[in-house]
Structure formats: C-alpha cells, structure tokens
Amino acid sequence: MADIQKGRLAADRLTDNFTDLHPPMSAHEALVEADRCYFCYDAPCMQACPTGIDIPLFIRQIATENPNGSAKTILEANIMGGMCARVCPTETLCEEVCVREEAEGKPVKIGQLQRYATDHLMKTVSDHPFERAPDTGKRVAVIGAGPAGLSCAHRLSMYGHSVTIFEAREKPGGLNEFGIAAYKSTDGFAAKEVDFILEIGGIEIRYETPLGEAVSLDELTAGYDAVFLGMGLPGVNDLGLDGDDADGCIDAVEYIAELRQTDDLGKLEVGRNVAVIGGGMTAIDIATQIKLLGAENVTIFYRRGQESMNASDYEQEVAQTNGVTIRHWLQPRSLEVSEGAISAITLEYTSGSNGSLKGTGETVTVPADQVFKAIGQSPASLLLEEAGLQLEKGRISVDKNRRTSNPKVWAGGDCVAGGEDLTVVSVEDGKLAAEDIHRALSA
C-alpha cells in the first residue's frame, strides 16, 4: 500500500527548508568579494559567459561602490541577469575558469556579486534603465513568455518595434516561473523580473494562446513582420514501461510547476520512499525538493556513471547534502503496481564504455510510493513539421543568428537544435535573434 501523505512536515519546518539557497550578500560582503577580482584583461570568465557579460567591469563598478552602474552593465548583455545570478551553473561557466579558481581553488563569487548588483538596482531605481526607441511601425510576434521570448521581446522593444507575446500558460516566465527549484528563486522573484522587463513598454502578452491551437504559424507570418519561436519543449519522455500511467508515477516537470505555484507546501502529496529516474538538473531539483518536503528515502537512479550526469558536481552535492542518495549504473526495468498505484520499481544494473550501454541482466527491486520521471522533454516535432520548418532531430534548425528555414521566422531556447535548458543560453538566443530581426526589419 502506497504511503503518500500531505503535510509530512510542520509549516515552519517547510518554510525553513525552502528559504533562499544563497542568502544575498550585504554591501560590505560584496565590496570584500569584489576586491578579490584581478580584473583580468581578456578575462576567461567573460569568455565563458554565454551572454558575454563584461564581468571584470561590473565587479570593478561594485568595488567602486557603483552597484547600479554595475547592474546596468550586466543587464545590457543579459536582461535576466537577476535570475541568472540565482540559477546559472556558474560553477561550470564563469567561476570554473576564474583565475583564482585555477590558482587557489576558490573563485571570485561572480554569481553572488551579480545578484547583489541587479537586486540593488531593482530595489532602488523606479525608472526602467533602458529607453524604448520611437515606434518603428513594425510588429513582431513571439511565441512563449519564457527566457528566450522575453529576452527577444525586450531587445526588440528597445529598438522601437511592437511585440505581441503568445503564451500557452496563464502566467509568464516559462522555465524561471514553473521549472526552477523553489529554493533557488524565492519571494516571487521570477514574476518581479518579468514585471521589470515589461516596464520598457511596447510589449503585450496574450495568455493561454498556444501555437497550433489558438494561433497558427501561418497566421502569424501573415499578420506580423517577423516571428520568434521560443516555446520550449512541451512534451515529457515516459519510461516506456507498463504502469507508466499508474498513480504515483509522476512527471517531475509538472510536479515542480505545481510546487512553484502553490501557496501552501503542506498541500503537496509526498511519498515515504521515492525514486527519481534521470541524471540532469530536473532530477536533482525534484529529488532535493521532495526530500525537503519530508520524504524519508529519496534515491536518484541514473543509467550511466557519475561523470556522465548532466547535473553539475555542485548540484549533485546540494542534493546529497540534503539527504538524497544517488545511485549509478541502474536503469528502470519494470514498475510494480498494487491497487492502481506504484508500490516498487525494479532496475537493471548496466555497464558501458566509449558511449555504449548495455544491461547486465542483474536486477534489484526497491520499494517506491512515488516514481518521478526526469528523463528529458520532447519537442513539438509534428506541429513544427506541419508548419513547414526544417527540423534536426525533431527540433528547429537555425543558423548562427537563430534564423529558421522560413525567412520570416527565428527561434531560440531549447526548442532549437543544439539548444540547452539553461536560462542564460535561452536569453542569449533571444538577444541574438532580436538583433537579426532588427537588422532585417531595418533593411
């Protein structure tokens, strides 16, 4: 019998468990940390930033007690610099190549300094730091109010183009609003950042208007001067096992979205024994959060070795520090269902080398009240193919400027071939597309 309950922990305990993972720096702490920067010429940290933020400059501005100037430097390159400061895997990007990391194993805390600056500006400045250019009369449609779509819309609005965003959900923000672990983005910051972005003006959002249902690509290309697609990956991969649809076999992405939107964490259903299948950030986020909600035993099962996991070493450490067990070289083989609900999962040991993977035939069965599927999301391939776009492995094929095979359509984020489910990469995609759209509309 599945042991699933609501309110496994007291309300005050839940509040403590979901406080900010990295409390913000004080002004003094920021000054001390900024002084550690060498302000390198041709800085490797800047090269490693997908959005090309001038990291030495913004840190120097903090060091000279100009945090709002620092924030402007950040936001000129990355309009979602506040959220990226919270969720960016800096440990595998800018901080990994920091000269101090190379020399001392202790990089400058670039992400926390970025948060200090952007938070300071959003709290102390009432006017938007960027001005909208005079209206050009050009209209652009954007699909998706996530990081890619919002980044594209903001940059286009700066140039004076009018933007209409078509969003499938009832709220904007995409991954930042619905898919980020709650302890990484607290106090409704994702919504506040969207409000900040929209303050520039010239951007309208139409909610609950998904592409292919409420509006078609043909309609958009006929009615607008350009279209940007940033709808993300709407589908979720199943385990492909009998029992996939049983109670307790759960889409991790949907559960995280529910967790992010609830006003009472005690209302969420939590099992005693929980299995998570996957090796990426979604697996880490759901495992850590279900443990913080009061699950007794939480185990991530991944089919390859630790070195192959998409989640960074730091994120794995966060999960393990919070009591999550990570087991490698195990893949799901069957689900045990009792009275319509998951009761256990059987996994097969695997082995592999040089990219190959095979089952050994040896299995292990573990009790599970809940099994979370975190094995990736899938694109809207059929919809995109019917729209006449060239695809690559089911995702939209784009050039370096994020142009698609349709001369009026651009795309970015993880819906494009080679795209990543990182906020910072999606923001850069939106920015690059906006710049190219502006060039095309100005020709």
Structural summary, described in words:
It is built from 17 helices and 19 strands. The radius of gyration is 23 Å and the shape is globular. The mean pLDDT is 96. A five-stranded parallel beta sheet has the order 4-3-2-5-19, sandwiched between helices. Strands 7-15-9-10-11 form a five-stranded parallel beta sheet. The termini are far apart. Helix 5 (67-77) crosses helix 8 (110-124), helix 6 packs antiparallel against helix 8 (110-124) and helix 14 (281-292) runs parallel beside helix 15 (313-321). The longest helix is centred in the C-terminal third of the chain and has 20 residues, at 423-442. It is of the alpha/beta class and 443 residues long. It folds into three domains: 4-12 and 237-376, FAD/NAD(P)-binding domain (3-Layer(bba) Sandwich), CATH 3.50.50; 35-124, Alpha-helical ferredoxin (Fumarate Reductase Iron-sulfur Protein, Chain B, domain 2, Orthogonal Bundle); 139-234 and 379-442, FAD/NAD(P)-binding domain. The protein has helices at 11-17, 27-34, 44-48, 55-63, 67-77, 81-87, 99-104, 110-124, 147-158, 175-178, 189-198, 217-223, 252-261, 281-292, 313-321, 381-386, 423-442; strands spanning 4-6, 139-143, 162-167, 203-207, 226-229, 235-236, 249-251, 269-271, 273-277, 297-301, 325-327, 330-338, 341-351, 358-367, 370-373, 377-378, 391-392, 395-396, 409-411. Helix 14 links the parallel strand 9 (273-277) and strand 10 (297-301).
